[in-house]
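Morning, I've got a small favour to ask if you have a moment. I owe you a coffee for this, so here goes:

…
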Amino acid sequence: MIERLQELGKEALQEIKDADTVKALDNIRVKYLGKKGPITEVLRGMGKLSAEERPKVGQKANEIREEIQSSLEAKTTELEEIALEEKLKEESIDVTLPGKEIKRGARHPLTAVVEEIEDIFIGLGFQVTEGPEVETDYYNFEALNLPPDHPARDMQDSFYVTHDMLLRTQTSPVQARTMQKHNGQGPVKIVCPGKVYRRDDDDATHSHQFMQIEGLYVDKNVRMSDLKGTLEAFVKKYFGPERSIRLRPSFFPFTEPSVEVDVSCGICGGAGCRVCKNSGWIEVLGAGMVHPNVLEFSGFDSNEYSGFAFGMGVERFALLKYGIDDIRHFYTNDIRFLEQFKRA
C-alpha cells in the first residue's frame, strides 16, 4: 500500500510539472486529493491492515498529500506570475507615442460679456449685487413707480407664479432692495447682472429669457452729466476709444428725465451702413435720473439725494461685440458655435 502511495505521488508530481494552466492544476488537485481520488481510496482500505502497518501507511499518505499540495501551490504561483507578465507586455504603454488631446471648454460668450462689463464698472467704483429671480410684484413694479393700474405695465408681459409673485421682468428690483437696505443713507453705487423673463416670441432678436445688467448710483448732488460721463467711459472701454455716445429723450417710469443711449457704429464709423440702418448710430441701452418717487419708496429724501440708473441687455452687447446675427445661438448649445469662443 505504501508503494502504491509512492507511485501516485510520482504521477501527481509529474502531471503538476507538465501542467501549463491554472485550470489544469485544479483538475489535478481534484483528481488526486478529491474525495473520489486514488489516495482517498487507498486510505479507505487501511481497515484491512494490521495495527502496526496502519500508522506507517497513514503517515506516508499525509506526507504525499502535503507534497502534492505544496507542489500545486508552487506551480500555481509560477503560472500566475507568467500570466501577469504576459498581460503586462500586452498592456504596456509606449511613452514615446503622442498623447491624446484633452478637450477644454470655454466661457460661454454671455458669461464672458457679463464678466467684462462687471470688471469695467468695478473699475469705476461700482459694486456687483444680485437678487432673486422670482420676485414680488411690489419690488418688480410698485417700488419702481409702477402701481397696479399703471399703463407702463403693459410694456412688460410677465410670467406670474401667484397673484403677487412673478419671474422678474428686469433686474431693477435688486436696486430697490439695495436702496432699502441703506435706510436712506447714501452713497449707493451698484451694478446688477442677472436673468430676466418676459412673455415674448423667440426670434433672431427676442427671447422670453435674457440677461440684463442694470446700474444705479445714488448720492448727494448726482447730475445728468455724471450719468453721461459714466456711460461714455464704459462705452469707450468696452467698444474702443474711438467710439462715442449720444443721448436721446425717452420714457421710463422709474427715471425722469429718461434717455436712450446710442453708440457710434463701429462698422461704418458713423457714415451710415446696413448694420446701423444708415443712421451712424446703434441703440445700446436705456438710462435716466432716478425718479423722486423711486427714491422716496426706498427711504431716501428726494430733496437731499439724487441718482442715475441705466440698463442694458447682455445679449445685445454680445451680438455687437462678436458680430452674431441670431440671439438663439446663445441658448441652443451648439458645440460648433461655442467652440469659436475658446481662448488660446
User: Anything to note?
Assistant: The radius of gyration is 42 Å. The beta strands are 127-128, 134-136, 165-167, 188-197, 209-219, 245-252, 255-264, 281-290, 306-313. The first strand starts at residue 127 and ends at 128.
